[in-house]
């Protein structure tokens, strides 16, 4: 946060932004830019509605002149055009890695890894939390909160610490130890809920209705529309990093399905407003077999999601009742993409393969994406000749337990040349 | 790595670089840019020797037009001016954070945190490994290796994976589990040595003399001069991020002491060659009480280091026989700086305080720096009115065990509003 303009009068949310309000994804009812996530008329999910003419004024040069983080895309977001409005760890502009060795291993012509573990708290959640809490302050909230499978908890607690704002984050009690310690270390309240993520989410929805939580912003509940928009930057960034070109195929991990729909939206939007040439990006969704309600609905040819009780090692994707599932299915269908699910063993092998070929150590969600990529190539759904981007959304250090049985020292020796010789280290 | 100039003939190490050779820090004997780390005449340590006139030609504009990573400083380094010569994960340009809340907590006027946990493998080691392995390829080596307390092992293994080069890394057998898994996941050989870091280091020195390791580059042993230069970027970056100004005080963690001496060198050099205004930066060194040979020698007014057997939680700093100790002492003395050492409890509290005030979760080495900062303020050695930069060199997720007893969920509840009420969550 910069305080250089602290004398400037406080602007309302949306001032100098292309966002003109909220719109229901279901019935198209419109609302002002308020703290609301579900339509009062049909209960459909709300999202930010933009003035297309304003979006179309944004130029490549304007973006390129911006900061080296997500805020370079602020002219395409509902908040953050003015630096002093940003409540942020300044995530973004994470590496887009030319994954030559992985492409070769999989028989692909051109493969990129978008590595969002490079964000400040090491997941893509820093993007959505930055847009959410920046909006929250504008909307008059004075405490940050979330329901989380871990990565979001880390990010909300860290954003609150940097901003000096109280926080209260809710997590399932059985998360990976790393994610628990990382959320707790920043201070603030950390509530372990004895239930699944979906239980945590329900509890948070109930809490938003209480007087005690009236000024608490649950980033992914009562201010969800502003949160979700942060994910758009993962589409725009890839386009910019490719030299303002769209890739031909992308593979995206799915929990709620929201990330995939927003990346898809960013690609469509960037072509519509002329930042990139028109082009169709085939969008593919990845889930773990332990929690695959979206991939299963896709496979069955329906868009009705049947909630499941999640299991398996890809805990950051374990949302059994995914709110944006139908929209993710629509994005994959409409672009000629697809979906697949992979087992825990395939996920572990995906983590290992990615690390060994790119130097990127991903959390299990990244393993889901690599394993899904492989599966979609084997089934012929994904074209090995088409330029492809896969998204790694989190850090391997957060899910060490999942792979610690897989790898370890290859040799153990006493500290002597003799011992090294006996261990075979001198036969290179 | 870019392959855009793959048709260009291979240049020798040092071509188009300001580096003119190696020079003995002790007796000033000079050498060509070869794979050598100790002086043949006096056994003193060698470092890269530059043509000052060439360095002085480097401009701010030239650097600012470079890439968003350490290679923008390539004109000041022995290798990497040409993009195709870089064997690298492209670390650097990590955040310099205006630590307002921490400054306030400690009664300081202006405090910055240089957060090098943002590098690809989440420590400053990516900087030194990038310069070392780029030089190694030029010098004809075909395998990357190191002796490591963990962070370096992670970085060498990841660099090797990205470059498609074999690696063999040596670590003490009792490292934090995170650092072991993170090094192993990238593939390559990982040798757990049943001894201390100093034992590991001795074994590696012996191995470099064997025929089987003739073409193996131990980044911090036989090509150490090129490795050490990477640390200079941590000085230049801070100067550039401050708007080409020098800070008044810095606090740097010490293991071998090399990082501190190179940051000091970068500040002196940047003023000498006109990239910044002349200015004296008071340099302070931080060690843990479990391994404080440099701080102890400083306190005793000597520059003779008495080796120790390291203990304590700051494992990444646990070098009992620190090669650059005397030079670190000289840097602190000559600038009117100082040194201090801190206990494990103070280190833990330092990690917690940094996280709670800045949103930066540091490994124990970062806790050492924050605790030392506090101690130097209390003793009056550090001026609270002077603009200060502290260096966090690693990631908290790598040393979770050290703080896991300190923090955890503040509440545990069943997933119901009733349970939340009973737990006192509705009395905000």
Automatic annotation (TrEMBL), chains A, B:
InterPro entries found in the cross-reference section: Ser/Thr_Dehydratase, Thr_synthase-like, TrpB-like_PALP, TrpB-like_PALP_sf
Protein name: Threonine synthase
Family that this chain belongs to: Belongs to the threonine synthase family.
Positions where N6-(pyridoxal phosphate)lysine occurs in the chain: 125
GO-annotated molecular function: L-serine ammonia-lyase activity; threonine deaminase activity; threonine synthase activity
Every Tryptophan synthase beta chain-like PALP domain range: 88-394
Alphabetical keyword list: Lyase, Pyridoxal phosphate
Domain of life of the source: Bacteria
GO biological process: isoleucine biosynthetic process; L-serine catabolic process; L-threonine catabolic process; threonine biosynthetic process
Cofactor: pyridoxal 5'-phosphate
EC number: 4.2.3.1
Pfam families from the UniProt entry: PALP
SUPFAM superfamilies associated with the record: Tryptophan synthase beta subunit-like PLP-dependent enzymes (SSF53686)
Keyword RNA-binding: no
């Amino acid at each position: 946060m910069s305080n250089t303009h602290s004398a400037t009068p406080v602007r309302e949310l949306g001032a100098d932004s292309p966002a003109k309000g909220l719109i229901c994804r279901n019935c198209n009812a419109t609302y002002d830019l308020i703290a609301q996530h579900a339509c009062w008329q049909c209960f459909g999910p709300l999202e930010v509605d933009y003035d297309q003419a304003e979006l179309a004024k944004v130029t490549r040069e304007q973006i390129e002149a911006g900061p080296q983080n997500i805020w370079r895309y602020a002219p395409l977001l509902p908040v953050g055009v003015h630096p002093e409005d940003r409540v942020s760890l300044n995530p973004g502009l994470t590496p887009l890695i030319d994954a030559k060795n992985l492409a070769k291993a999989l028989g692909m012509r051109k493969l990129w890894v978008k590595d969002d573990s490079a964000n400040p708290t090491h997941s893509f959640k820093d993007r959505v939390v930055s847009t959410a809490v920046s909006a929250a302050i504008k909307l008059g909230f004075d405490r940050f909160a979330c329901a989380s499978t871990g990565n979001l908890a880390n990010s909300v607690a860290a954003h609150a610490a940097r901003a000096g704002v109280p926080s209260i984050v809710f997590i399932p009690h059985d998360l990976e130890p790393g994610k628990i310690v990382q959320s707790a270390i920043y201070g603030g309240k950390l509530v372990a809920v004895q239930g699944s993520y979906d239980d945590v989410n329900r509890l948070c929805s109930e809490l938003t209705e209480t007087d005690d939580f009236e000024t608490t912003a649950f980033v992914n509940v009562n201010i969800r529309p502003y949160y979700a928009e942060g994910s758009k930057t993962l589409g725009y960034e890839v386009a910019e990093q490719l030299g303002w070109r769209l890739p031909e195929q992308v593979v995206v991990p799915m929990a709620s399905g929201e990330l995939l729909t927003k990346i898809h939206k960013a690609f469509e939007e960037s072509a519509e407003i002329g930042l990139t040439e028109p082009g169709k990006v085939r969008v593919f969704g990845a889930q773990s077999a332990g929690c695959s309600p979206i991939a299963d609905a896709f496979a069955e040819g329906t868009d009705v999601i049947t909630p499941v009780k999640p299991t398996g090692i890809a805990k950051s994707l374990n949302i059994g009742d995914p709110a944006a599932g139908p929209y993710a299915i629509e994005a994959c269908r409409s672009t000629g993409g697809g979906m697949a699910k992979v087992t825990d063993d395939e996920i572990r092998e995906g983590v290992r393969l990615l690390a060994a070929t790119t130097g990127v150590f991903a959390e299990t969600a990244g393993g889901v994406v690599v394993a899904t990529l492989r599966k979609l190539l084997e089934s012929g759904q994904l074209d090995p000749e088409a330029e492809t981007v896969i998204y790694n959304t989190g850090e391997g250090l957060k899910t060490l337990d999942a792979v610690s049985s897989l790898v370890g020292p290859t040799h153990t020796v006493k500290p002597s040349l003799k011992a090294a010789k006996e261990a075979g280290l001198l036969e290179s």
